[in-house]
Amino acid sequence: MVVTGNEDGAHHVISEISGALADLGYTIPGQAWTYWHLGPGPGPDHLDDERGRDWSHRTGRAMAANLYGVASALAARPVGAPPG
């Protein structure tokens, strides 16, 4: 998940979407998200400031690696549908 926003709003959006997806039965690996990191509070627009981009790129690469790892594991050993 890539959220366009600073820390406060991004964490809120990430928790709401992750919670909803988990309730539906999705597998959500750790660090399955990234956002533009400039710390809490309002800040400049992503396009107007270079700060925080390195962090976003690093967590984006970690996100992709974790998603691929979990997808590979689930492909090798799928989890069946719930009973009922």
From TrEMBL:
Upper classification of the organism: Bacteria, Bacillati, Actinomycetota, Actinomycetes, Kitasatosporales
Protein name, per record: NADPH-dependent FMN reductase-like domain-containing protein
Natural source organism: Streptomyces plumbiresistens
Domain of life: Bacteria
